[in-house]
Amino acid sequence: MSGLLSIIAVCCVLVFAYANNRPHDYSDYSIRITSLDKNERLNTPNLLRRVVGSKLLRVVGERNFASSEEGVVIRARNERTVEQIKERLLNEGLNEYYKVEETFKTSPDYQRYINKVNTGDTTYHNYTQLYTFLTEMNNLYPNMTEIFTIGQSVEQRNLYGIRINTQNRSQVVFSDQVNAPIPKPKVKYIGNIHGDETVGREILIHFIRDILMQYQTNGRIQKLLDSIDLYIVPSINPDGFELAQRENKNDVDMNRNFPDFITGDSEVVQPEVKAIKNWLSENTFVLSVSFHGGAVVVNYPLDGLPNGQNYNAYNEEAKTSEDNFFVQLSKSYAKAHSSMSESTEFHQGITNGAAWYPLYGGMQDYNYFYENCPEFTIELSDTKRPPAADLLGYYDENKEALVVFLENSYKAIGGLVMEHPSLDLVQVPCNITFETNDVTVHSSGSWNYTLPLKQRDNGFYYKLLLPASYNLTLSCEGMMKKTHNNIAVKALDDKPIVKNWVVSRTKM
Ligand SMILES: [Zn+2]
């Protein structure tokens, strides 16, 4: 008995001694918090001290909390402390106003941290974990990423996204008349509009991690990220996810809450929907996917029937004028997916939205009619909320398709519209019409599409097209009309055709 006690006593002494001998210098494992909003005159150290200071101090201890003009530096004990501090900022609603940087890259802890991030985990990410993940990515790849929020949910969770935009541009997108590159086209992947359809949210997390990690070593990913300006929002219904329900906190199905070209506006526009609409009104996207669950299929526009009926007895399709384009891009995803194109339920793993079941107020038709953005609704899993252990499997099924689908954005005609003789980018509204007689684009052998160029575009246009030869006509307010004929988009093109315009004002 006494032998056992003395062993315990020796152990205690050893543990105590070890704890006491641990290095006290955590300087290579710290975080710096700086204010992002200078106009608000938020004096970072003072405000942090006042609002969260006492709590932070309790977490890290007064000794490890140093403030200066640039912000505060907190010497954290371990990763958990860093997470706790971030959570506190989030809970206090201060996360948007402050930049949190981890500055422990030289420590051995950093290697552990990298390993953790690289392996990925196979669990679901709740709201805080999702934010932590995005922050980790932003810390690891500060020059390629930025975290943004498009607004807030009913329960005031931020609708976080990550923009992946490398500093490099594929050489091909340099303008031939002005000595500047044309901008990269904006493309988006959106997840989790239905809170209980969770696979999209999680595979986007894996996708973000994968493409960022592979950028330096994988030429195909490098080319992709150098060619597009990619926005990924893993969840636009964070409240629904936390509640494990389809609708948002107000019990509204957000994918029925958008203004609709056929049935008009919906009753009360939800804050999340309002946020998405504002975001879309500020950015021109040229390609988009919204990820869902409950089936395995690519669903393409239109979702609504022209007569506004809710029941579609004969599975009638509601086609856009670009139906062939939508079919082809849908197939590109289904074929690159591990099994989607072999579906027994949907021919080739794709379907027209209305032919499956008509719906109104959806995000897909809104994108197309109101913002000229081709959006696809991709259903990823028969089970809406599968066990966490299956998530990596779903990612594997979709991994290749997620890249292939974005590569569709290479087949396009784009460029800048400038004024003669200054070569200033036009600021007036313009329309660019694309016409072709190619039957692969439209079976009637005659097809045209008019793309509006808005003020927000700052003279830049970009239109995804099927391979064919096109005639383009540009008309801008107060300017002479201009045409570019026989511009060929080819099947094997892996870069956009750049066509710039220099237009003159009409004589008064
Ligand atoms: Zn859904």
Automatic annotation (TrEMBL):
Q: Where is the active site?
A: 379
Q: Matching Pfam families, A to Z? A: Peptidase_M14
GO CC annotation: what is one? extracellular space
Q: Which residues form the signal peptide?
A: 1-19
Name the PROSITE patterns for this protein.
Answer: CARBOXYPEPT_ZN_1, PEPTIDASE_M14
The answer on whether this UniProt entry bears the keyword Protease reads yes
The entry sums up its family as follows: Belongs to the peptidase M14 family.
State the name under which the record lists this protein.
Answer: Carboxypeptidase M
Source species: Acrasis kona
> What does the record give as the organism's lineage?
Eukaryota, Discoba, Heterolobosea, Tetramitia, Eutetramitia
